[in-house]
Amino acid sequence: MRFTAETSSGGVLEREFTVGEVPGVLWSPVSGADRAPLVLLGHGGGMHKKAPGTVGRAHRLVAGCGFHVAAVDAPGHGGRPRTATDERETAALRQAMAAGEPVGPIIIRYNAHLAERAVPEWQATLDALQKLPEIDGPVGYFGPNMGTAIGVPLTAAEPRITAAVFGLFWPDSLTEAARRITVPIEFVLQWDDEHIPRQAGLALFDAFASKEKTLHANAGKHLELPRFEVDSAVRFFARHLGRA
């Protein structure tokens, strides 16, 4: 891990870093006095590690819980180079959207490809982050949309993750991995989602083997997830990760 930039605002220290070729950012309390747990943030499709929604969630977790929070650019996103597959799939997605055709099959296929690349990158990043003296205790994962497409197989493969918030994705490529997840889960679903059929979202929630799992279904379309769901996620992680 190599830190490349550092700023602070509102009591939150922001440090950009790289692990190998993967760029990331770590948010921490400015005080830095106590060792604390870590939450990993997965960003949405077409976004990046410092997209406004990701930064907002990070600041809420740092300010509300005193946690450390990390995000990385997914393959083909943010500051990372794009492969021929990235270009082909995003072009297919734009074409389908322009024609008013269903985008689900393209997103499911492409995000499954991204997850194969991203899971080992996240594991290497977690290895590096846990060597920092200020990070200690359990690990959480928070990521709807593409963050769920990557986060479900990551959580299934990574025993260090002990609680997760997912949602807003199809079950097609994730059911097998979800059945291997037993940690506490909070799952968000938009009842009137124009892309993900209601029964598909419910099927993914049902697939998790967790004894403790909570479904948050809100009225509205895909991009209308209420902001109060971030508050709920903060409370969820405070309850399940606590302080080291």
Summarize the structure.
By secondary structure, the protein is an alpha/beta fold. It is 39% helix and 25% strand.
Describe the protein's architecture and organization:
39% of the residues lie in helices and 25% in strands. The chain has 244 residues and is of the alpha/beta class. The chain has a 9-stranded mixed β-sheet, sandwiched between helices. The longest helix is centred in the middle third of the chain and has 26 residues, at 104-129. The protein is globular, with a radius of gyration of 17 Å.
Briefly note the structural class of the backbone: alpha/beta
Kindly state the percentage of residues in helix.
25-40%
Overall shape:
globular
Number of helices: 7
- The overall strand count is 9
The largest sheet has its strands arranged as 1-2-3-5-4-6-7-8-9
Mean pLDDT score = 96
Separation of the first and last Cα atoms: 23 Å
Fraction of residues in β-strands: 25-35%
Rg, Cα atoms, Å: 17 Å
Q: How would you sum up the major sheet?
A: 9 strands, mixed
H/E element order: EEEEHEHHEHEHEHEH
Q: Which blocks of ≥5 consecutive residues have pLDDT under 50?
A: none
Give structural attributes.
single chain; 244 residues; alpha/beta; nine-stranded mixed sheet; 7 helices; 9 strands; 39% helix
Strands, helices and their partners?
Layout: E1 2-9, E2 12-19, E3 22-29, E4 36-41, H1 52-65, E5 68-72, H2 84-99, H3 104-129, E6 135-142, H4 146-157, E7 161-167, H5 175-178, E8 185-190, H6 198-207, E9 213-218, H7 228-241
Parallel strand pairs: 4-5, 4-6, 6-7, 7-8, 8-9
Antiparallel strand pairs: 1-2, 2-3, 3-5
